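Obj: model holo form, ligand = pantoate.
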Amino acid sequence: MNLPICRTVTDLRATVSQWHAAGEKVAVVPTMGALHEGHLSLVRAARGRATRVIVTLFVNPRQFNNADDLAKYPRDEEADRAKLASENVDLLFAPGVEEMYPEGFSTTVSVAGLSEGLCGAHRPGHFDGVATVVTKLLLQTQVDVALFGEKDYQQLSVIRRLVRDLDIPVEVVGVPTVREADGLALSSRNVRLSAEGRRKAPALAEALATAGMAIERGEDADAAIARAKAAIKRAGYSEVEYLELRDAETLEPVSRAKRPARLLVAAWLDSVRLIDNLPVLPPSHG
Ligand code: PAF
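Output (holo structure tokens):
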């Protein structure tokens, strides 16, 4: 398999500086492995924007607020490597925990505001863990472009802000969510659904789409959201953690889509927490 791996920041930087010295443009796709088509779409988008593509694979313990979730996170480096090799990725950076968080590591990157509410309210410390590891990965790789999925929309917003606030010289690109034919957003967690759960799962995306269309037609957002929550519960989800309309850029709560907005949802099915989101445009006045 022709996909070089490096495990240390020193080796990684040596390769990237050679590429930069040769005038190449370098992109990174940060991942935690368990790669699916959604990740591969990020890799393909990276290929369209750079001459060299690095994928990072690191299951970041600091972003799991639940030890069980971390223990259950699927890990299969060989399978991931094979997928990346067939996409002609140039380098896999797969550091160990010691390399990322050596003894005495004591810095946290925390993005106020955007990390609070939505997933942040239900997963304490999660976005501090994400912000810290992504800051490290961007500084370690020193790439020109970094790509992240819109599926994790709040995460993408947090990353855009930290890059801006900390003057990290990288272009952040958000890539649209890849969906199954029935609308379910691709996620590493989908494999944990039972056959019955998998059948019910698309109700989440359906409810978002219906609510989004209603809000875009100018209907009352609160009523559309209440109907969407009821539809998700009726479909068999045990709990809707949140379903909210937020400003697409600031993630401030909004009651109408006066500017581009986003509907964001997290809900539980089969003891699996699924998230999704959808752009909502202001109602047309035509
Ligand atoms: O989206 C993910 O897979 C992770 O949160 C990320 C961005 C790789 C950081 O660990």
